[in-house]
Amino acid sequence: MGTVLLVGTRKGLWVGRSDDERVDWDFTGPHHDMEEVYSCMVDGRGESPRLYAGSSSMWLGPQVRWSDDLGGTWQEGTGVRFPEQYDASVERVWQLAPGTEPGVVWAGTEPGAVWRSTDSGQSFALEEALWNHPQRPEWGAGFGGQAFHTILPHPTDPESVTVAISTGGVYQTTDGGGSWTARNQGIRAEFLPEGQQYPKFGQCVHKVTRHPSRPERLYLQNHGGVYRSDDEGGSWTYIGDGLSSDFGFPVVVHPHEPDTIFVFPIGAGDGRYPPGAKARVYRSRDAGDSWEELGSGLPDDFYVGVMRDAMTADGHDSAGLYVGARNGAVWGSADAGDSWRQLVCNLPDVLVVRAAKI
């Protein structure tokens, strides 16, 4: 047994390996040198793990690649491409997520579109009902661009998928993509004028997560606000009281405890670094009713941010947690955030981290 850690950056992908203790790490890279890697995934559904990377090259465009030997060699399919009838082209693959059925892989892209592969990533088909949604022309673009950054297939119902986009909000299908419904009731859009801050759609949602054993409960990090839904996005409750800031990008659920979640608050000002420049993870063990600050081993002089997909958990019994920063450093915790150590540094700007027990 062991652990694999994928670190996607603006200049390629690094693959880390460690044993179950997760103290000493060996990294290889860069894979896909000088390509932006906004998304990656460890797929453990087969007999052996398959690594995926969604990369983007200024010369070759966006591509989804996979490796069946932990990064030793890579293959690529036909890519993520709009059908000819649409005057659009994919710029980046922001999200990769395993489906609930064998061979299904989901992708979220910029511009804002969702795609489904039924052949393990060799080809992708556009979710046309979402692309043609009547609300799409009114979706804005967040500071980082307009992209579907969250895709959450229901763990037991393949017809149900929840997605999120900046700035459009949360949407859900329950009929296999035939139709999509906005699910944003209670989420505040603080950038809108007073009296208009709770629209049906248009929120700048930063990230959404859920635990497979309790799929009706979702957690959401917004552009100002952390929220919980107990009815799969039908309504949302603010749970940001007790945080140093309710602005941030990632939100992660514990792999074995559906009531335990983690966020990385940063200031909402132009600096986009943590309050007091102290890198801190906050943990709640009661679904957001209360929070505790975790910082043992994390730096106190930290003037960079952590992106929406740059925090993740592994599947070990003693849950590992990982944070990648825009200064090219990655920290890891083998005890669910109680203590931290730096695993690697001096990489390019970290965009995404993914980890798994193998």
From TrEMBL:
<dbReference type="InterPro" id="IPR015943">
    <property type="entry name" value="WD40/YVTN_repeat-like_dom_sf"/>
</dbReference>
<dbReference type="InterPro" id="IPR052025">
    <property type="entry name" value="Xyloglucanase_GH74"/>
</dbReference>
<dbReference type="GO" id="GO:0010411">
    <property type="term" value="P:xyloglucan metabolic process"/>
</dbReference>
<protein>
    <recommendedName>
        <fullName>BNR/Asp-box repeat-containing protein</fullName>
    </recommendedName>
</protein>
